[in-house]
Amino acid sequence: IKSVRVTGFDGKDKYPVGQVNVLKSHGKGLTESRLIKNGYAIALGRAAQGMPTRVENARIALLDFDLRKARMGLGVKIQITDPAELEKVRQNEMDITKVRIEKILSKGVNVILTSGGLDDFSMKYLIDRKVMGVRRVPKKDMKRIAKAMTAA
């Protein structure tokens, strides 16, 4: 109860119990439960094994979009006569994604939480840059994390 106590402007204590996230884990007993005081736990792991397991002084980016290879929009028709041109189009799609990720990382981000997906290309790029990525984070958790970081 002390962990969720908030003192309002009027000096009265309030207890917003809805702010507490309870994670249930199979196979553990009640005596092995833990309280995380200065943080927030989510029931998701890293997107890939090569990503860091622990990040000190985390700079977190909360994204509400996919970090997958950009595809040409629906209705776009490309006539290709040379196989090299097809490879150019594919490379261009990958470059768009790379630029998108690079813009995010240029802000000093070392943890990316996205409500969308991460494809293999994006994960490899994040692994090379030693960035932790978590995909398909529920929007409810994203909002709570944003509020905890005072980003909302």
Automatic annotation (TrEMBL):
Keywords per UniProt: ATP-binding, Chaperone, Nucleotide-binding
Pfam families named in the record: Cpn60_TCP1
SUPFAM superfamilies: GroEL apical domain-like
Cross-referenced InterPro entries: Chaperone_TCP-1, Cpn60/GroEL/TCP-1, GroEL-like_apical_dom_sf
GO molecular function, one term: ATP binding
Taxonomic superkingdom: Eukaryota
Keyword ATP-binding among record annotations: yes
Protein name: T-complex protein 1 subunit alpha
Organism name: Perkinsus olseni
